[in-house]
Amino acid sequence: MRKLESSVSQSVWQFITENKGGMARLLRLPAKVKARLFQQWGLAIFLAGFLLGRALIIGEIAPFVIPFIAVVYHLRRDKLFLASLSTLLGAASHELASPFKLLVTILFFIGLQKLLERWHKGAISYTPIAVFMAVLLVNLGFAYVKYWTGYTALMAAVEALLSLVLTLIFVQSVPLMTNRKRKAPLRNEELVCLVILLASLMTGTVGWMVIDISLEHVLSRYAILVFALAAGGAIGATVGVVTGIILSLANVEAMLEMSLLAFSGLLGGLLKEGKKIGVATGLLIGTLLMGLYLGETGLWSTFYESVVAIMLFFLTPKKVFMTISQYIPGTPEHAALEQEYMKRLRDVTAKKVEQFAELFQQLAKSFSHKPTEQDEERRRHVDLLLSQVTEHTCQVCFKKEQCWQGKFQDTYQLMGQVVDHMENHGELSGALRKEWNQYCMKAQKVMQLIGAELEKTKILLKYKQLCQESRRLVADQLSGVSRVMTNFAREIKREAENHQVQEQVVLDALEELGLSIRYVDIISLDEGNVEIELSLPLAYGREECEKIVAPLLSDLVGEPIMVDKEESVFATGGYSKVRLVSAKRFKVSIGVASAAKGGGLLSGDSFNTMAIGPAKYAVAIADGMGNGERAHQESRETLNLLQYILQSGIEETVAIKSINAILSLRSPEEVFSTLDLAVIDLHTAQTKFIKIGSTPSFIKRGDQCLSVAAHNLPIGILQDIDVDVVSEQLKAGDLLVMMTDGLFDAPRHIENKERWMRRLIAEIETNDPQEVADLLLEKVIRFSQGKILDDMTVVVAKVERHIPEWSTISLTHIPKLRSTKGELLAST
Asked: Where is the chain membrane-spanning (predicted)?
C-alpha cells in the first residue's frame, strides 16, 4: 500500500514538474494572443460548452446546456454555432447523456426564440420563459414516445425549472467570462452566480481521473485556494459551500466534499496573511480533519488531491490573485484600485478647473485692456465733430477752397479753439467770437451745429465711460472667479495627497492610549490648516476627543488642534465622526445692541458675523437708506450678498464692487446703503477695514481708544467706486467697536463727534463685549435726552488669544508628523 502511495505521489509530482514550463509559457502569452484565443476565436465558449454538455445531475437531467445556449444567443450570437457544437460534443463524450435530445431541444429553443422576436418579445427578459417551455415540451415529448410515467413527467418539470433558474444565473455570470474589460466591482449576486457557473463547469469533469486522482476534486480545491487568498475567509467559505452543493448534486457520494471545501475555504481565508503558504496550510488541515472519516485509503487519496491542487496554486502567478481581488469589494486591492480611480478623477477635475480658471483670467484680461490715451481720444473726437459740422456748412460754401486749402492750418486751429471754448463755457463770447465772426461767412450756423454736436459727443462720452466702468467691473469679477477656481483646483490636488504613513502613526498612538479607532483620514497637514477626520465608538461619551485626541494630535503635529465638528453616524452603540482642525491663535466674541428710530420694532440697520475660509472672521454692518421695512430689506440683502460672495472665496474689494454694481443697476430709483466691514485674521489678528459711506470704527485697548476711518461714497450711488482698505494690527484683549451713523451722529450739537466718541468708549470700564455695546447705546440715548432720531446699531468684537483647555499629551517613542520647518517626518 505504501509503495502504491509513493508511486502515485511521485507520478503526480512528475506530471506537475513536466508541465510547469508549458503552463508558464501559456501564462506568458502576449495579451493580444490571449484575446484572440478567448475572445475572437471563442475558446472560452467552446470549453465552457463542452464541460456543460457533459454536466449531469443525479445521472439523468442536464439543465445546464439550454441556459448556456440562450445566453450565448443574446450576448454572442456570432458564436452560437460554436457553442451548440461544443455542447453536443460534450454530451456525446458522456455515456449517460443524450446528444440527439439535446440537439432537438436547442433547435426547438431557437425556433421558439425566433417566434418571440416576430411578436416583438425577443428581449432577454423573456428568455427564461422560452428556455422553460423548450426544455419542458421536448422532455415531455421524448417521455411520451419512449416510456411515460409520472416520474418521467416530474423529472421533466424539475429539469425545466432548473433550466429557468440557471438561465437567470448565467445571464449575470457568462458575461463575466466573455467581456474583455470590466471596471465595476462584482456585486454579491454576481459573485455567487460566477461561483455557480464555475461549479457547473467542474461538474462536467465528474468521472475524469488522472492516476487515481479526481480532477473535479482538484479543480474545486484549487478554486477554494484562489478565492480564499484573493478575497478572504467569508468568500472562501461561500465558494466552498456553493461548489460543494453543485458537485454533490452531480455525485451524491461527494456530500462530504462540501464540508471539506467550506471548512478549507474558511480556514484558508483566515490564514491569508501567511500568503500562499498560509492558505495552503488551511486546506491541508481541512483535508486531514475530513480524511479521518474516510479511513486510511480515503485519507491518502484526498490528501494527494489536495497536494495537486496546492501545486497548481503555487504555480499560479501573483497577478491572477491581484486581478481577482480588484473586483471583490472589501479587499485591499479593490480599495487601492478605488483610490487610484479617485486620484485620477481628482486630477482630471483639477485640470479642468485650472483650464476654466485660465479661461476666466484671459477673459478678464480682454475686458481690462488699456484705453487709448486721453489726448489721442480728444483729438479723434474733435476731428469727428469738425467733419460732421463742415459737411453741412463748409461743403456748400463758396469760400471752401480758400479756407480749407489756402488756410487749412489757420482754419483748423481756429475751429478747434471754438470747439474748446464752447465745450467749456457753453457759448462763444469775447474776442474769440469777434474773430470767428470776421473769419467765417456762416459763423452763427457753424456755432449752432457745434453746440448740437457737442451735446451728442457728451452723451457718447458718458456712454463710453459707463462701458469702461462696466468692463473694469466685469474684469475684476472674472479675475476674482479665476482666483477662486485656482484655489479650488489647489484644494483638489491637496486632497489627493497620500498620508497613509502619517495616518498609521496617528492610529497607533491613539490605540496605545486605549481608544478603539475605526479609521483616521488626514486631509491636510499644512501649517495652520491641519484637517483630520476620524471615527470612534459612541459608547465612550466622555469627551475623549477634547481631552485625549486633540491634545495628542497637538503634540504630533506641533500646533494646537481643536475639535471642529462631531456627529453621530449610527444609532446608539455605533460610531461618531469627528473633524479636528488647527486651533486658531485668536478667537472673537461678539456683543450687539440696537434701537430703531423712535423706539420702533424694525430697524433699517443690519449686522452679520461670518467665518470666511479656515482662518478669517468678518464683522459687517449695513445701514439702508431711510428707515423702516424697506431700509431693513436693503441692508439685509446687502449683507446676504456680501456673505455669499465672501464665502465663495472672492476678495473683499471685488465683493464690495460687485455688490455696488448690483445695487446701482438693479433699480432706476435711488437705492443705496452704507457698509462697514472688518475682516480679522484669526492667526495673526491683522484686521482689514473696508468702509463704504460708514462712520469711523474704534479700537479700545486698555484706557486708550483709537479710531479707524476711510472716505468712500455709499454703495449703490455710482456704478464704479474706489474701495480704500485700511489695515490695523489688533492685539489680544482689544475691543473693536463698529457703529452706524444713527449712533455716531446722535449728539448733533457736538462739533468733534469722533473725539467725543473716543472719550465715551475709553470711559467704559468693563471688557465684556455685550456689556460695552449695551452701555454705549444707553449713554448715547441718555445724552440725547432719550430721543432716538435715527436707527442705532453698535457691534463690539473682542479679540482674545485662544488657550487650549487641555495640555498636550506627549508619547516620546511615537514619531512626530511634522518638524518645526513644516516638513513631514513620518513619511521618511
From this structure: 43-76, 96-116, 123-145, 151-171, 191-211, 223-247, 277-295
3-state secondary structure of 184: coil
**Residue whose C-alpha is closest to residue 234's, from 288, 291, 188:** 188
Q: In what helix (H) or strand (E) does residue 304 lie, and over which residues does it extend? A: helix 295-315
- 213 Cβ contact partners less than 8 Å away, ≥ 6 residues apart: 8, 12, 301, 304, 305, 308
Query: Residues 763, 737: contact at Cβ < 8 Å?
Result: no
CATH assignment of 500-582?
Answer: 3.30.980
Give strand ranges (E) for 201-340.
Answer: 209-210, 213-214
Partners of residue 534 on adjacent β-strands:
520, 578
**Better-predicted residue by pLDDT, 116 or 364:** 116
Q: At what angle do helices 233-250 and 215-231 cross, to 10 degrees?
A: 160
Q: What percent of the chain has pLDDT over 70?
A: 83
Residue 804: which region, alpha, beta or left (left: phi > 0; alpha: psi -120 to 50)?
beta
Q: Following CA atoms 214, 218, 224, 227 in sequence, which dihedral angle do they give, to the nearest 10 degrees?
A: -140
Report d(CA 613, CA 652) in Å as an integer: 13
* Kind and range of the H or E run holding 536: strand 529-537
12 has pLDDT over 50 = no
Residue type, 633: Q
Q: What is the CATH number of domain 586-801?
A: 3.60.40.10
- Which residue has 482538484 as its cell numbers? 218
CATH class as words, domain 1-29+187-330:
mainly alpha
Nearest 5°: phi and psi at 673?
Answer: -150, 145
What Cα–Cα distance (Å) separates residue 114 from each residue in 161, 757, 760? 22, 95, 97
Residue 625: C-alpha distances to residues 431, 629, 630, 790 (Å): 50, 11, 8, 11
Please, which residues bridge with residue 690 across strands? 677, 725
φ and ψ of 426, to 5 deg: 90, -45
Neighbours of 462 (CB within 10 A): 10
Query: Model confidence over 168-211: pLDDT tens digits?
Result: 888 877 766 555 455 566 777 777 788 888 888 888 887 787 77
Could you read off the pLDDT of 219-266 as tens digits, one per residue?
888 888 888 888 777 777 878 788 777 777 777 666 667 777 777 777
Q: What is the mean pLDDT of residues 309-318?
A: 84
pLDDT band at 486 (very low <50, low <70, confident <90, very high): confident
Indicate the average pLDDT of the chain: 77
Q: Which of 278, 255, 259 is nearest to 268 (CA)?
A: 278
- What's the pLDDT tens digit per position in 80-128? 888 888 888 888 887 666 788 888 888 888 888 888 888 888 788 888 8
220 CB-near residues (< 8 Å, 6+ apart): 199, 202, 243, 244, 247, 257, 261
pLDDT per position as a tens digit, 497-555: 667 778 888 888 888 888 878 788 887 777 777 888 888 776 455 677 888 888 888 88
Q: Which amino acid is at 246?
A: I
Model confidence at 20: pLDDT above 50: no
Digit-coded pLDDT (tens) for 556-589: 888 888 888 777 765 445 677 888 888 888 889 9
Per the document, the length of the chain is 828
Domain ranges of the chain: 1-29+187-330, 42-180, 338-496, 500-582, 586-801
Angstrom distance (rounded) from CA 346 to CA 683: 30
Our CA angle for 45, 46, 52, nearest 5°, is: 85
| Sequence-ordered alpha helix ranges (H) in 327-442 | 332-367, 374-392, 400-401, 408-425, 430-439
Q: Which pTM was predicted?
A: 0.55
Pairwise CA distance, residues 68 & 83, whole Å: 8
Nearest of 362, 301, 281, 801 to residue 584 by alpha carbon: 801
Residue 775 confidence (pLDDT): 92
CB atoms within 10 A of CB 393: 19
The cell for 196 is 455557480
